[in-house]
Amino acid sequence: MIVSRYAHALSPVRVGGLELRNRIFVPAHTTNYGQEHLPGERHLEYHRARARGGVGLIIFESIRVQRNTLGRPQGVAGYDPRSIEPFARIARAVQSEGARFFGQVIHLGRQIEGEFERTVSWGPSAVRWSATAQMPHAMTRAEMDIVLDGHVQTSRNLVAAGLDGIEVQLGHGHLLQQFMSPIANARGDSYGGTLENRLRFPIEVVRAVRAAVGEDFCMGIRISAEEYAEGGLTVADMREITTRIAANVKLDFVNVSHSAYQASYSLATQMADMNVDATPFRELPREIRGALRAAGHAIPVFAVCKFRNIAEAEAMIGSGGADLVGMARAHLADPDIVRKAMAGREDTQRPCIGCNQGCAGMLERNLPITCLINPRGGREGGMKLPAEAPSEAPKRVLVIGGGPAGLETAWVAAARGHKVTLWEKAAELGGQTRWIRAMAHRADFLGLIDHQIAQCQAHQVRLVTGKHADLAAVEAEAADLTIVATGSTPQPLRFASGRQAATIEQALVDPARLGNRVALIDTTGEWSSLSFAEHLGRAGKRVTIFVPVGGFAWRTTIYSSLANRKRLRELGVKIALLRAARDWDGHVLTVEDLSTGELERHEGLDSVIGATYNAAEDSLHHALEAAGIPVRSIGDCLAPRTALEAVYEGHELGLAV
Ligand SMILES: Cc1cc2nc3c(=O)[nH]c(=O)nc-3n(C[C@H](O)[C@H](O)[C@H](O)COP(=O)(O)O)c2cc1C
Ligand code: SF4
């Protein structure tokens, strides 16, 4: 069935010799679900759910071609013949749901952290990708053959496992891109220098993979059409490079992404978060597609990055910018995007809010990925949908607190048949996310609250705002179970002089009162400080941030903070590291340089704002418990953390009550 408003996106398409049921695909994304370097049950359930949700194609995450590119304990070893059987099971699960299943073969080169496998990183040259990375070993010709063989062996294993296609990773700053790029390749032999030389090894590898899988097997490449790095490859270079590769090897598709995965803004473009405008990325596949077509290669071109819904994919494909559109994080947030669009129920799509907290943030920490807005993401095998787990003994449940934890637990419990009432003391729902409303660049985050409220409404939760909860009120309600989700309260930073700094929340009420020269003392390293600093910068204020550690925004993911740092720099926001605030007398801020112990005086400031840890609002829980009222607590009132933990705990308890 083709839905007319999505006549392009939801119509079948041929890629190589294959027909795909529609033009929406799930791009490769590393999940860290691997066990003992093999794909497992968690992968299977994860991908089965997305195939069931209607996509035409799923590309399995980066499949490593060699031991020295495993990188992390969960890296999947495609060169290992033991991977064939689990891959075959996943392929069958995906295919039986009507989707095609490809694998991405990769060597990450200098990007890899060799510590896990106690291997040295390999690269075309001894050039590091970040100041904190290991120095790679400059590969010899013999080592290049090992990598080439690894690609061949891995591809053969994937064919043996019954996958439908293979994507060779030539993008995202990994090894083959490192060979192509002047910022990573400083070789003096026939594999460095001229474009022809830099392309030699990538072409050898792609050719070898083609020879291994045969002419009829579906095989293509993923590229970065723009490195977004000084001295790096541009879209003009990549037009030339892609057409040269297509002229040398039979390609069935080109998957166009971007970034050099260099520790700069470039890295943050790859998983562009809610603050990053995706418009420039839309031109890249269009450019590559145009170049390929002009050179006589009318092969399908894939586009990715921040496509949030089928309407956006339709616009891209309909305007000739691409033939297929990939949605990675959007499918982590909601596996059923296509099915919902086909049913005309786009309004029920759980949106990816571009926070990077559950996905890229976990990736960076070598933890299994999940999703802030979809706690079931990655737990499809073990965590039931609320509708699949109706309560056998429906109760009257009272939830106190209308932030992310309370709203989540309320709708999940209600979806299971409980009769749920939620009280929120403020006039508005959303808890601490309310202050995000003041910051336009963070507005997508509110998609979480909008989604939760819609779910509460759909499941008849009685939402009561402006309602103060105390022991007497709770006793009068006489619910079977009370769930406390009262959150936490920002604590002011107090100085020796007895003065205290305004909290971020207080500062947001009336930024004009802050004056022009503002100091932000951040002891948290959290998103809130990072966003607030940008907000002040955007408002034209002269901002200095003082942090007591050696880095900024240390509790946010590098996939977002590198982009944020670029924006702060453009806004002229100063970051002073290893500085602890000691006193503020209303005119002078005294800070200690923690490296020397010296005190610095900062004069002429109009205001000082302090970001410290919140205090848990747990008094109601204790009062109810002391009175013998059945009570459970979730989210910040247990311990102040982020919305990621709050939503998860709310969801889990909603399923358990
Ligand atoms: C958690 C995570 C892991 C990723 N791992 C890979 C990977 O293994 N290989 C790859 O080519 N791209 C990887 N990507 C990039 C995605 O394929 C995609 O290009 C990016 O997420 C932007 O698309 P989106 O906005 O639809 O998420 C990853 C992205 C995320 C969020
Ligand atoms: S964690 Fe955030 S960015 Fe990642 S998929 Fe979920 S909503 Fe999107």
Outline the structure in words.
- The protein has 20 helices and 27 strands.
- Strands 3-4-6-9-10-11-12-13 form an 8-stranded parallel barrel, surrounded by 6 helices. It has a 5-stranded parallel β-sheet with strand order 16-15-14-17-27, with helices on both faces.
- Helix 1 packs parallel to helix 2, helix 3 runs parallel beside helix 5 and helix 6 packs parallel to helix 8.
- The longest helix is centred in the first third of the chain and has 20 residues.
- Helix content is 33%, strand content 17%.
- Strand 15, helix 14 and strand 16 form a beta-alpha-beta unit.
- It is globular.
- With 657 residues, the protein is an alpha/beta fold.
Note the main attributes of this structure.
657 residues; alpha/beta; 8-stranded parallel barrel; 5-stranded parallel β-sheet; 20 helices; binds flavin mononucleotide; binds iron/sulfur cluster
Describe, in short, the structure shown.
With 657 residues, this protein is of the alpha/beta class.
